[in-house]
Write a structure and sequence with these properties.
The complex is a heterodimer of chains A (329) and B (430). By secondary structure, chain A is an alpha/beta fold. Helices cover 36% and strands 26% of the residues of chain A. In chain B, helix 3 links the parallel strand 1 and strand 2. The longest helix of chain B has 27 residues. Chain B has 17 helices and five strands. Classes of the chains: A alpha/beta (329), B alpha/beta (430).
């Protein structure tokens, strides 16, 4: 019996508790990873680690290097430098392959096969067979809420169903580390909600998850930690709260709309180091009491207040703060 | 409004290179192939190989043989051509028949012993042994041509024999010649023989004589007994013979289309997902090759079942079909691995397969082709497959005779698979 598999605090034998427990290898560890495509460095020295049951959100603009990082982890791209281990095994080994589950952004399914046939095919590719395969297919279909669609051809499924089946195909071999690349693209709120429940169920089982998305609210809801990637580097990493604290401390944003001469509005905004975005004035303030001073000065300038709001920074604020507002593609 | 539509279509066509290739290269390629085969360019019309067995060794038979050798369109062979320089014995009648059956030559001529006693028949009046013309019925042209040229050779190469025979007939039917007349006739015969000698010298030293005119029909000067040694009573099996040609061509299309699934999987991301599992690229390609081979084999089997009412799973057929299926499956995989999209694959496969089929004998029999084209055909899967199936269905040759075709097809299949594997590296890792 492998001692490493005995959970800490197990009551099987008090003597074991006295022995130093061998540490279980980290589910996923990426160290100083570099991947270049010609002159372009897509991943530039990224390091990260993932614990069991943890969900790490990967956020970044298009072309930031998220997908390349994921492809390196699943062995579909060869890194130029750095190290990736899955439970201590180098990426590409059969142990690492079996421990990893990958849900690509594309619907990587066989359209002319049924849901059940698709899952069985991918299960066989992972070495499953017989009753184990059948059980896994049944479990995955139920997990994806497709139990009554087992015999339906993939091409006849709705977009949301295809997305869920795409996820199920990625975990058919019950991996302990799952990489989800934008799994909710193009699905309706109902399917999206179901996908969240599926991911939460995996986490509850102790699966370590990397979740790539452009939807900040998804990362806020699902992820324990978030890593923001830009230009191939992790520019910030931590919990949601840590990221906001590190980027904005106690600062808040004030959004105000005024009626009046545009040059007067622009001058007022400039005086208070704000900026105009879509006709609204935006200011970053340290204390909420600063709002009164802002509005008072506007009134003195003859500007008529239309509406004003105080916004606490969120993940999107952090994201835009760190990656800027310029278009990337 | 018509002009903008034309302009848009032109712009789209300009960027669709496969469609452009199909529009221009394919017609030019086909025109060239047909022109070479049927246009008789550079006077390179196919020569007919004729095996000649002279059992008589008389003056008349030797003259006739020399006359046949002088014919431009015939290649006379009296002994097997071995690679090693050891002196091969002359063909016997049995060896000649076996050679025709094996497809070494479409026609064999056997001049029987005693032919020289009475070589000229003058329309069947002769009572001596007739020349045997052994033919392969799959080639309907060669026996007709050889029969005609045989009569021509008899007319031009054996004037002395003809005159002698004429004298005999005169002697026999007119009531006999006087000694004086015989002496004059003998003198004239000697002159004719000198002319024959001069003709021989001319043939040996310079270009063949073209002065001889006229032709004789098959019931003409020399008696000929035509016998098909291959394809006798095989009218039904002719369908199988042609099924091989067409079958291999369609097989190539099926294989290329089936291998195209790889491109779909690459485009959809399924290939990436599969390769992230335990499946490696080599395993994946080997699996696809196995599937495509089985598909092609099943297609061939169905085609031949349809073609032959009394089809039996001949071991030769199974071996040939498997080897052909393997080679075409690997060929399809190379095409698929070269291309980046389905559209590219469609255009390239149409272009290459139709060209291969035209050169390789799927569209018209290879015996119609000039020598250069025959050699070019050996670079196609079609030619080797068709030759193999012909051996099985037409010539009834034993399995052991299939080794050249089996060897080439297997080697081609393995080589193509390795090439496909090499090209598929682009899908393996980024």
């Amino acid at each position: 019996m492998n001692d490493a598999l005995i959970p800490a605090g197990s009551a099987q034998s008090p003597a074991i508790e006295l022995q130093p427990q061998p540490l279980e290898p980290v589910p996923l560890e990426v160290a100083s990873l570099v991947k270049r495509f010609g002159q372009v460095t897509a991943v530039d020295g990224i390091s990260l680690a993932l614990s069991s049951g943890e969900c790490l959100g990967l956020l970044g603009p298009n072309g930031a290097g998220k997908s390349t990082l994921i492809r390196c982890i699943v062995g579909r791209a060869l890194a130029d430098a750095g190290r990736i281990t899955v439970f201590g095994f180098a990426v590409g080994t059969s142990e690492a392959r079996e421990a990893l589950g990958w849900v690509p952004q594309e619907l990587a399914l066989y359209p002319r096969l049924t849901c059940g046939e698709n899952l069985a095919a991918f299960g066989r590719y992972h070495g499953l067979s017989g009753s184990k395969l059948a059980q896994s297919v049944t479990w995955c279909l139920e997990w994806a809420a497709l139990g009554d669609r087992a015999g339906d051809l993939v091409k006849n499924l709705s977009g949301g169903m295809k997305r869920r089946l795409n996820m199920a195909a990625g975990i058919i071999h019950r991996p302990r580390v799952v990489l989800l690349d934008e799994p909710t693209v193009g699905v309706d709120p109902q399917s999206r909600n179901r996908i969240f429940e599926m991911i939460e169920a995996l986490r509850a089982e102790g699966t370590a998850i990397i979740y790539t998305t452009h939807y900040m609210e998804e990362a806020e809801r699902l992820c324990d930690r978030v890593a923001i990637i830009d230009h191939g580097r992790i520019v910030a990493q931590g919990t949601n709260r840590e990221l906001i604290q590190n980027s904005f401390a106690s600062r808040s944003q004030v959004l105000a709309r005024f009626a009046g001469p545009s040059d007067e509005i622009a001058a007022w905004v400039e005086r208070h180091n704000g900026r105009l975005v879509d006709g609204a004035a935006q200011f970053t303030i340290e204390q909420s009491t600063q709002i009164a001073g802002l509005l008072d000065d506007a009134a003195k300038a003859g500007l008529e207040l239309v509406d004003v709001s105080l916004r606490r920074p969120n993940l999107e604020s952090v994201f835009l703060h760190l990656t800027g507002r310029e278009l990337r593609d | 409004m018509i002009i903008p539509i034309v302009r848009t279509a032109l712009m789209a066509l300009r960027r669709d290179r496969p469609a452009l290739a199909m529009s221009f290269i394919l017609p030019i390629g086909f025109f060239s192939i047909f022109a070479v085969i049927f246009g008789g360019q550079h006077n390179s019309t196919a020569k007919i190989k004729v095996i000649l067995v002279d059992q008589d060794r008389s003056r008349a038979s030797l003259e006739l043989a020399k006359g046949l050798e002088r014919e431009d369109s015939l290649v006379i062979s009296t002994r097997p051509s071995f690679k090693d320089k050891g002196a091969a014995p002359d063909y016997t009648a049995a060896a000649a028949e076996a050679a025709v059956k094996a497809g070494d030559a479409p026609v064999a001529l056997i001049i029987p012993a005693g032919f020289g006693q009475s070589p000229i028949s003058f329309g069947g009046a002769q009572t001596g042994p007739a020349i045997q013309l052994l033919s392969d019925a799959s080639d309907m042209i060669a026996p007709q041509m050889v029969g005609g040229l045989l009569q021509k050779a008899a007319m031009t190469a054996m004037p002395a024999a003809m005159a002698e025979q004429g004298m005999k007939y005169t002697d026999q039917y007119v009531g006999g010649l006087t000694p004086e007349q015989r002496k004059i006739m003998s003198g004239n015969l000697e002159q004719l023989r000198q002319i024959e000698s001069r003709l021989d010298a001319q043939a040996d030293g310079t270009a063949p004589a073209h002065s001889a005119q006229g032709s004789a029909d098959s019931g003409g000067l020399v008696a000929v007994k035509v016998r098909s040694v291959v394809g006798e009573n095989k009218n039904g099996n002719m369908i199988s013979f042609y099924a091989a040609g067409i079958g291999v061509m369609f097989l190539l299309f099926t294989a290329s289309n089936s291998a195209g699934a790889l491109l779909e999987e690459a485009e959809s991301g399924t290939l990436d997902r599969v390769l992230s599992s335990r499946v490696t690229m080599t395993t994946l390609l080997a699996g696809k090759l196995a599937f495509n081979t089985m598909l092609a084999f099943a297609q061939l089997a169905v085609m031949f079942l349809w073609a032959q009412a009394f089809f039996k799973l001949d071991p030769g057929f199974v071996i040939m079909a498997l080897c052909t299926a393997f080679a075409v499956a690997a060929f399809g995989m190379v095409l698929a691995s070269i291309c980046h999209t389905r559209a590219q694959l469609g255009a390239l496969s149409t272009l290459v397969i139709l060209m291969m089929s035209a050169i390789g004998g799927s569209m018209f029999p290879r015996f119609l082709m000039p020598p250069a084209m025959l050699k070019a055909g050996l670079f196609t899967i079609n030619a080797w497959a068709i030759d193999g199936f012909t051996k099985v269905f037409w010539r009834d040759l034993p399995v052991s005779e299939l080794w050249p075709q089996v060897g080439v097809l297997l080697a081609v299949g393995i080589a193509l698979f390795l090439i496909a594997r090499r090209i598929a590296r682009r899908w393996e890792y980024a």
